[in-house]
């Protein structure tokens, strides 16, 4: 034992020479800078233990560092040192039983060939190290892997390298998903022997012979309660034993639990939780196809609307300004879906190896910011658009009360600041985007996080109620049969119903299940919630550009005028241009100025123009 000698800075080569009876060597808490020469010990003991600990000035383990120590079983306890790097062939020429490297806080690299030339180890402990990867060679013999608190180890080597692994204690639950369906060679062998052994026992115990009664004191605890075969007993009721069925040589090398050969199954902790099940980001194969269709539709539709509205030579009105904001919000939602779909495609089948990098990295935070910002800005803008339409119809005869651009700009500025603020909070610890693979703020562990989620959901529900109320008032205002034809009234009602239905389809399922989850009474799993994410969550982002812009006559006019500038659709552009000036001249002839239409007529014109 060489312990607590801080002034010991160096051990000469050959200091440990020809020590055949040495069983245990401990060098701890010294000032040694260079790894000592241990290659001339030549111990003849069946098992040798080397302990190096608290030697903070030793930074590397060189090549052949342990060769010649012992030709039999070797346990290396190399913990709490200053190791930063383990070189190639460091363990060459050893028969490793246990390799303990825990608590080497600065250990960042084990060379891929560090274990080349070595047999084993059976047990590898790299807990509380800074390792970013494991060596690709020499893992085949490992039966127990301990990697707790190894936060830098975010990826595992190919799973076929762990051919003998029976127990893994890791840092991240997602890594255990890698081992869930892994069948090791030893497992397969034990399962095969277990199956053959079961059949042999069954057939033998059905027809016991006198030769099987040699050892009636042993018991065979193999019962129906264990989902196995009934007890086998002799005439006096004593159970038969294994030794009466198989020779000792046939049973050698197998573990016995409850007096029976039980095959070992690979165990891994920590197990995946409800928020991070063992699956890819999207979970279902059909969602992987649908999300591409939906995000392309959302991006293309909203980009087209933005392009047409921003390049139009017509005056920027309040409806156009609001529509630009809505299209931008929905465009951001499309970007979120595109980001999720892209990462899912890249990590499909191996998400367990990318989960930590994705969920704790900037990618997931960016995706989460996009979706919360887009969702809240979209809901806010939809509410403003609906209120603006109701206000325009209600005060159609009072032009001095008309909402103008100077009023709309600060209103939308407030919406932008609100949406950005809500989206930024999870980046500062109020809930978190890292909780789930789809990067939504589902963390409700603290009261503040729970209040944050509930605030968002309640505001969305209030916005939906306001939208419904305004559309009902609009419908009441325009349904006067004396001023609006019945068929036009029906069209107005249908258009309103479509808008309310799309809003309800988007908000209702998400809000219902999210509110229940916020109160810690989840009614749906994360796996099933991904269906809502793809099929319901982006409904508005896909539908809004069509319902509020693309299907309207004003948009079609602007679109064809834009295309005519590019040399396409000139005849259609001229048609819309003539219709516009014809309508304008017709109004001017009536008293020299445009007349103010009746309330119902103006309401219908507004609804028709914006496809309400």
Automatic annotation (TrEMBL):
It is a multi-pass membrane protein. One of its GO terms (molecular function) is luteinizing hormone receptor activity. GO terms for cellular component: plasma membrane. It is found in: Cell membrane. Residues 301-548 form the G-protein coupled receptors family 1 profile domain. One of its GO terms (biological process) is male gonad development. Keywords: Cell membrane, Disulfide bond, G-protein coupled receptor, Leucine-rich repeat, Membrane, Phosphoprotein, Receptor, Repeat, Transducer, Transmembrane, Transmembrane helix. Receptor for lutropin-choriogonadotropic hormone. The activity of this receptor is mediated by G proteins which activate adenylate cyclase. Belongs to the G-protein coupled receptor 1 family. FSH/LSH/TSH subfamily. This is Lutropin-choriogonadotropic hormone receptor.
């Amino acid at each position: 034992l060489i312990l607590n000698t801080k002034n010991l800075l160096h051990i000469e080569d050959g200091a440990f020479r020809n020590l055949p009876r040495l069983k245990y060597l401990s060098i701890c808490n010294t000032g040694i800078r260079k790894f000592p020469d241990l290659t001339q010990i030549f111990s003849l003991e069946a098992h040798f233990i080397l302990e190096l600990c608290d030697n903070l000035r030793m930074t590397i383990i060189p090549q052949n560092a342990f060769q010649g120590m012992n030709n039999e079983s070797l346990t290396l306890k190399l913990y709490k040192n200053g190791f930063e790097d383990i070189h190639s062939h460091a363990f060459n020429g050893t028969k490793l039983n246990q390799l303990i490297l825990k608590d080497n806080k600065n250990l960042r690299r084990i060379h891929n060939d560090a274990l080349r030339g070595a047999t084993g180890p059976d047990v590898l402990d790299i807990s509380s190290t800074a390792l970013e990867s494991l060596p690709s060679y020499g893992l085949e013999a490992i039966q127990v892997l301990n990697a707790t608190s190894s936060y830098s180890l975010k990826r595992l080597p190919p799973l076929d390298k762990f051919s003998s692994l029976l127990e893994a204690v890791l840092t991240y639950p997602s890594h255990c998903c890698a081992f869930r369906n892994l069948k090791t060679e030893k497992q397969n062998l034990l399962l095969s022997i277990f199956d053959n052994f079961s059949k042999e026992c069954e057939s033998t115990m059905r027809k016991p012979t006198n030769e099987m009664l040699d050892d009636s004191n042993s018991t065979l605890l193999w019962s129906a309660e264990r989902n196995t075969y009934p007890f086998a007993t002799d005439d006096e009721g004593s159970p038969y034993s294994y030794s009466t069925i198989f020779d000792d040589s046939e049973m050698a090398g197998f573990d016995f639990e409850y007096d029976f050969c039980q095959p070992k199954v690979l165990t891994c902790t920590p197990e995946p939780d409800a928020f991070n099940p063992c699956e890819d980001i999207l979970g279902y194969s059909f969602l992987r196809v649908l999300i591409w269709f939906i995000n392309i539709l959302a991006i293309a539709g909203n980009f087209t609307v933005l392009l047409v509205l921003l390049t139009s030579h017509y005056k920027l009105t309040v409806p156009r300004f609001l529509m630009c904001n809505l299209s931008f919000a929905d465009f951001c939602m499309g970007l979120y879906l595109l980001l999720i779909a892209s990462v899912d495609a890249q990590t499909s089948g191996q998400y367990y190896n990318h989960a930590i990098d994705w969920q704790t990295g900037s990618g997931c935070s960016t995706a989460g910011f996009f979706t919360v910002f887009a969702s809240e800005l979209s809901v806010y803008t939809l509410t403003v658009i609906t209120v603006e339409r109701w206000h325009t119809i209600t005060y159609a005869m009072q032009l001095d009360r008309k909402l103008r651009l100077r009023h709309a700009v600060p209103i939308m500025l407030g919406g932008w600041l609100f949406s950005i603020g809500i989206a930024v909070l999870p980046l500062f610890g109020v809930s978190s985007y890292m909780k789930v693979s789809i990067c939504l703020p589902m963390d409700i562990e603290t009261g503040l996080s729970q209040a944050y989620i509930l605030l968002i959901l309640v505001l969305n529900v209030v916005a939906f109620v306001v939208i419904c109320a305004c559309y009902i008032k609009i419908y009441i205002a325009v349904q006067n049969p004396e001023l609006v034809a019945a068929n036009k009234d029906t069209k107005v009602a249908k258009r309103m119903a479509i808008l309310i239905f799309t809003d309800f389809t988007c908000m209702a399922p998400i809000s219902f299940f999210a509110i229940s989850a916020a109160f810690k009474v989840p009614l749906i799993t994360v796996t099933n919630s991904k269906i809502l994410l793809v099929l319901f969550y982006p409904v508005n982002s896909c539908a809004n550009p069509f319902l509020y812009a693309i299907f309207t006559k004003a948009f079609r006019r602007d679109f064809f005028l834009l295309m005519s500038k590019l040399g396409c659709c000139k005849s259609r552009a001229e048609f819309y241009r003539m219709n516009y000036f014809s309508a304008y001249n017709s109004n001017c002839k009536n008293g020299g100025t445009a007349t103010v239409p009746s309330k119902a007529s103006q309401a219908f014109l507004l609804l028709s123009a914006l496809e309400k």
